[in-house]
């Protein structure tokens, strides 16, 4: 399950699947390392190298992180036609709220714009 499209003002979720995936990812050291490394858009291979983890492990962790509101997926366009998926941390802050209605996760996306970051990458042009 992929998460819904990002908003620019922050999101709050009480969806059990999203909460479970987020808590599972945050409890995993490799996922936390990937989140720390993904301050700029990177491919899974680049994340594996930066985090010193096996590529197969990186693919599994990226898949898990993609089910959370913490991570965004984009496309790295290659003029030669060899496009690749790239990922970036998609949050500035996250807060867990425990209320009468249960648990809620609020993710603040303010100031985080992976699409703008991707378009600022070298070799990327809108032309």
TrEMBL record:
Residues 107-127 are annotated as: Disordered. This is Transcriptional regulator.
